[in-house]
Amino acid sequence: MIDRPLNVAVFASGRGSNFQSILAAVERGELDISVVLCLSDRESAGALVHATKQSIPTSVIHPRDYQTSDEYADALGRVLERHGVDFIVLAGYLKKIPTEIIRMFRHRIINIHPALLPAFGGVGMYGRRVHEAVVQYGVHWTGATVHVVEEEYDTGPIILQEAVPVFPEDSPEDVADRVLEVEHRLYPAALRLFAQNRIHIEGRRVRILDMQGDEPVRDDADPGRAKHD
Ligand code: GRF
User: Fold this and answer.
1) Residue 122 sits in a domain of what CATH number?
2) pLDDT in tens, 95-154
3) I want to staple 198 with a disulfide (CB 3.0 to 4.6 A). Which of 31, 128, 161, 209 is the partner?
4) Which residue owns the Cα nearest ligand 1 atom 7?
5) Which of 50, 113, 147, 184 is catalytic?
6) Residue 217: inside a domain
7) How far is the CA of 91 from the centre of ligand 1 (A)?
8) Do the domain assignments include residue 167?
9) Which residue's CA is the nearest one to ligand 1's atom 2?
10) Buried-state track 107-118, b at ≥16 Cβ within 10 A, e below 16
11) Ligand 1 center to residue 13 CA distance, Å?
12) Atom 5, ligand 1: which residue's CA is nearest?
């Protein structure tokens, strides 16, 4: 067990609003981690701008610049090692994480997905497409899911989920906005549970421990949802 704040790398391909929500939680003193790196596959990613403003080191790595996936994985591994990264947060990162890195960081890579997994997840389900599918299907509820990253997209053990309603007149943008608001609370909360060493994973099952690290925490008023704040 590491007895200092986790050194976290955030991987982001886009605007980086989830990255910002994590930085804001750190700034408010609600999340005791050190964000040591922002990594992207796109020079134009908004997340890189937020990182630079806060003097957080950045790195851009394009998988296409490497001849083989092993070389790409090695390059990623070297950057992570150079920055002393203990934990990886995917915040709208669109590239697949190489198996080698997933093995190296077992149960130490998390992702946020803008739907209630396992619904509306998997290959090709990202960004607006998720909310379009939600509206088209006519579900009454969607939400956000924070999960551990495994080799297949959107399949790892679920850390936290929160639902939001979908109304008949909603556009995909309405749903996206409602879900994003939840994401901005849920992701820092999930990361805080890891930072406090309160996540215990057995197979697909995740137990959230209390602050002493032994009692599982359950919200009796809503057993489907662990207390996270
Ligand atoms: C979020 O909707 C997140 O759920 C998904 O990608 C989007 C990233 O948005 N994985 P942002 O770049 O954090 O604003």
Assistant:
1) 3.40.50.170
2) 999 999 999 999 999 999 999 999 999 999 999 999 999 999 999 999 999 999 999 999
3) 209
4) 92
5) 113
6) no
7) 6
8) yes
9) 114
10) bbbbbbbbbbbe
11) 9
12) 92
What's the pTM value of the predicted model, to 2 decimals?
0.93
pLDDT tens per residue across span 26-75: 999 999 999 999 999 999 999 999 999 999 999 999 999 999 999 999 99
In a domain, 9, yes or no: yes
**Structural domain for 20, as ranges:** 1-106
Q: Which domain-ending residue is among 90, 106, 122?
A: 106
Boundary-marking domain end, from 106, 122, 147: 106
Active site residue 113: yes
**Residue 208 maps to a domain:** no
Question: Quick check: 37 and 59 in contact, CB under 8 A?
Answer: yes
Distance 136 CA to ligand 1 centre (A): 20
For residue 3, the CA-to-ligand 1 centroid distance in Å is 30
DSSP structure string for 2-35 = --S-EEEEEE-SS--HHHHHHHHHHHTTS--EEE
For ligand 1, mutation pick of 11, 17, 21, 125 (most atoms within 8 Å of CB): 17
Q: Which long-range contacts (CB under 8 A, 24 or more apart) does 125-130 make?
A: 125/153, 125/154, 126/94, 128/172, 128/173, 128/176
